[in-house]
Specification:
alpha+beta, Transferase(Phosphotransferase), domain 1, 4-stranded mixed beta sheet, 8 strands, about 5% strand
Length: about 350
């Protein structure tokens, strides 16, 4: 009977020693056990004993170890950096970093365990991920468009929402409202409910899974640390070594970085003119990439009746007419101001 790959102990020992040798040579405070070949077989893995407390026990407060925030932050930095090193420098990574596979020492040291699930990345995936991580680190408004290079297809999502999806899938940040949303919540905004992740390759999915596990660990430690900050230098180095140009996209403006603020400005404009400004009314604006009053004015000027009907479908004919009149008035006021 063929042994399932997950229980291929020979491969696991090989990967543990390969990654362990590389990681120990790079990081002083990160540990990986070494296999003991003479005590191992096809059915048993013997390895060196590692000091530390299971992170699972630590998070459940079943251990007596107490560490300050500075030490925990350093531990978290090590965890994020060792994954950047594995993914971008080695192209091989331990793909199951759940708390039970991690030890934390009394000095905040990190130990990685269990190399039964080790993934070898294709060069095309590493290149696509490196480009995306650099774009995320630079706050590029085009980050979401790079998801396609990783084989990910997002349906029914405007550009800003795609960028948000890119941060959620490939960064550990928790300061985005969407990162804290429950996907099964009936109160999810319409634009989130309409979005669909229709395709994600297995290799890419394993990377997404790693990021999700790392985010869960950081959240349990009450730390909002962004992986892209630690991963970007490794991603840029990988691209340079392979003579691949790093995309020079401009950084987003304050407005572009915060689509919620942009939509709030439109809502304020509507409210000031006694027009509807509910989420129901304005969600079609976001889905159609209408992020400012100028965008709305351009839509009216375009005479694109099909798109206008889609954007204004929850407004009555009277309300649409009122919007147009106010846009004309705003344009006239702006022209007068320029003349003055």
């Amino acid at each position: 009977m063929q042994i399932p790959k997950e229980f291929d102990f020979h491969r696991e020992r090989t990967m543990m020693d390969l990654l362990g040798t590389s990681i120990r040579s790079k990081f002083e405070c990160i540990n990986v056990p070494s296999s003991l070949p003479t005590a191992s077989s096809n059915d048993i893995i013997a390895m060196t004993f590692m000091e530390g407390c299971s992170l699972s026990n630590f998070l459940s407060q079943e251990s007596r170890i107490e560490l300050g925030k500075t030490t925990l932050t350093a531990f978290a930095h090590s965890l994020l950096e060792v994954y950047a090193y594995q993914i971008f420098e080695l192209g091989i990574f331990q793909s199951d970093p759940h708390p039970g596979n991690i030890l934390i020492g009394r000095d905040g040291s990190l130990t990685l365990l269990d190399f039964g699930q080790v993934k070898v990345l294709s060069s095309s995936t590493r290149i696509a991920l490196a480009q995306l991580v650099v774009a995320l680190a630079r706050d590029s408004p085009y980050a979401g468009e790079l998801l396609t290079e990783l084989g990910i297809k997002v349906d029914n999502a405007h550009r800003h929402l795609k960028s948000t999806v890119a941060y959620i899938l490939f960064d550990t940040r928790m300061d985005l409202p969407e990162a804290r949303m429950n996907p099964f919540d009936d109160e999810l905004p319409l634009e989130i409910r309409q979005m669909k992740l229709s395709r994600i390759p297995q290799e890419t999915f394993m990377l997404v899974r790693v990021v999700a596990l790392l985010r869960g660990i950081l959240s349990s430690l009450n730390l909002d640390i962004h992986a892209r900050i630690f991963w970007a230098p490794y991603a840029e180095a990988f691209l340079r070594i392979n003579k691949i140009r790093v995309t020079q996209e401009p950084k987003r403006t304050a407005e572009q970085r915060n689509p919620h603020e942009q939509m709030t400005r439109i809502a304020d404009w509507m409210t000031a003119r006694e027009l509807p400004s509910t989420t129901k009314h304005l969600t079609p604006f976001a889905l159609a990439n209408i992020w400012s009053i100028e965008d709305l004015a351009a839509l009216f000027s375009s005479k694109d009746t099909k798109k206008m009907e889609k954007v204004l479908k929850f407004f009555s004919c009277e309300e649409r007419s009122k919007i147009q009149q106010n846009l004309i008035r705003s344009s006239a006021d702006a022209s007068c101001t320029k003349l003055v």
